[in-house]
Amino acid sequence: TVTVVGREAQIIVQLRGDGSPPHSIENSFRRAYTALTYRKPSREVEKRVRSDPGDQLVHLEEVMAAQGGLPIVVDGDVIGGVAVSGGPGGDKDEACAQAGLDKAASLLK
User: Fold this and answer.
1) Per-residue pLDDT tens over the stretch 12-28
2) What is the pTM of this model?
């Protein structure tokens, strides 16, 4: 499942593939939300929480400290977030999100 969110974390696009886990809808949204909110890949938030489990950000309802989300940045401005969930590992989810960003890069200028 892939989710793209806009500046205010509104869902712009959400697609779920046949056979993908039902929780991947929520997970992809929350990872995109996290990348947008923190203006960094969700893997960086995951690292932060792993190094400090008492970090207060874990109490924010939509934040998901898991790899797979990337901010959408145009000319240094974070305009949204994109995330994938349901692959066989967060590294593959993130690679898929990055591939989508790379494909759309010329449209984001």
Assistant:
1) 999 999 999 999 999 99
2) 0.93
